[in-house]
Amino acid sequence: QKEVEQNSGPLSVPEGAIASLNCTYSDRGSQSFFWYRQYSGKSPELIMFIYSNGDKEDGRFTAQLNKASQYVSLLIRDSQPSDSATYLCAGNSGGSNYKLTFGKGTLLTVNP
Amino acid sequence: EAGVAQSPRYKIIEKRQSVAFWCNPISGHATLYWYQQILGQGPKLLIQFQNNGVVDDSQLPKDRFSAERLKGVDSTLKIQPAKLEDSAVYLCASSPGTANQPQHFGDGTRLSIL
What we know:
The complex is a heterodimer of chains A (112) and B (114).
Chain A: E1 4-6, E2 11-14, E3 19-25, E4 32-38, E5 45-50, E6 54-58, E7 61-66, E8 71-76, E9 85-92, E10 100-102, E11 106-111
Parallel strand pairs in A: 2-11
Antiparallel strand pairs in A: 1-3, 3-8, 4-5, 4-9, 6-7, 7-8, 9-10, 9-11
Chain B: E1 5-7, E2 10-13, E3 19-24, E4 31-37, E5 44-50, E6 53-56, E7 65-68, E8 75-79, E9 88-95, E10 104-105, E11 109-113
Parallel strand pairs in B: 2-11
Antiparallel strand pairs in B: 1-3, 3-8, 4-5, 4-9, 5-6, 7-8, 9-10, 9-11
């Protein structure tokens, strides 16, 4: 069973702090990883994706991938109350069907 | 670029009734996915289409769920008969179907079974 595990949460940080969201995966064949944000009652919205080892930065967001450790993380700098949402980590299986396996999500609350 | 369109947004039915959901993917996206998301959990893939062919339906409860994607564009997902445990949000997503390309989600259909 290919699994994606996320830190259980919920996670609460003060406004302006760095929020760190973590994810591990069991399938070594996974090629790329996606972080989605999901507001309550809304559908998942893509934040960023990463497929090379190392860091990828986009504004206040940094994704980190370590394939040797099978570990993916998302850092949110200068957290804002509007960042309060559930963050879903998903891994793309190897092979030609590009199937995503999602974690259960981590609920982040940014307190003003 | 128009996003993934889904309808209806909400549906309430009684158990043992049938229900159908519709999805129109982003134009040009070859791959279409149907997910089930139960409250507090991540989306679970039900079925994946590449153009109008099924790529993966390993987690689709085939005794009650069916899906089709005629002409490789729009898709419908049907549940017949519905059970209480089918209460969930049904999400449709699409992607170009090439490596490392993200999936984009529609707004989903929230299904409640009474």
